[in-house]
Amino acid sequence: MEPMLIGRNAVIYGGGGAIGGAIAQAFAREGARVFLAGRTAEPLEAVAERIRRAGGEVQTALLDATNESAVNRHADDVAAAAGSLDISVNVIQHGDVQGTPMAEMALADYLRPVSTAVQTLFLTAQAAARHMMRQRSGVILVFGGSGNPVPGMYLGGLQTAFEAMESMRRQLSSELGPFGIRVVTLRSGGIPESLPENMEGAGEIADAITTATMLGRAATLDEVGYAAAFAASDRAASMTAATLNISAGSLID
């Protein structure tokens, strides 16, 4: 079967992270030229090296995805060098504090992921949209997981951030649809593989994610990559203003 993303140019903000790296490798396997952006060189280069070893095309850039001028310059550079900007994915970390009940949490800790998520999605979607509108094509992927909270999982402002991103996705879909631009959210319900090994309470969080599923297991990083590649491809050409639910049944619409 022919690769799904041949000739596409994809920007992945947070491309050095576990989820961003999985999406980047899937895109590259499907023929896309991948542009990884993030704040730290080492993880970006580690993902890039895996892609290169597999024969994919990849470039990296140090970038703060909450910095408007930096995001705009990078998007312009990608479009100028590659000829188009076809896919934009934002999976940067939002600085959320987990494990603390809301009744005990500082206001700043609760609001941080909400503010960061809204700011960075606005900036990166806007930068991509300027080029996609001229092309009259493109895909913006949002990564979230909003749904009913699982008892015992203290997620702080993360659920609120996801709900805000879903509202933005709906508005972007409506405004950009006439230009042939699709906006889709991947909802995972949590990826245990993506939790840092040194994260306090990581084991308990992973168990809670798995217990909440109907299949008795959560989505894997590879499955996130497969789903993202499909959503970004022409095989999902009629999908916009929608969510692609890969939560193994933990998130019910």
Automatic annotation (TrEMBL):
Belongs to the short-chain dehydrogenases/reductases (SDR) family. The keyword Metal-binding does not apply. Keywords: Oxidoreductase. This is SDR family oxidoreductase. The lineage of its organism: Bacteria, Bacillati, Actinomycetota, Actinomycetes, Micrococcales. The keyword Oxidoreductase applies. SUPFAM superfamilies: NAD(P)-binding Rossmann-fold domains. CDD domains: SDR_c. InterPro entries: NAD(P)-bd_dom_sf, SDR_fam. It comes from Arthrobacter zhangbolii. GO terms for molecular function: oxidoreductase activity. Signal peptide: none annotated.
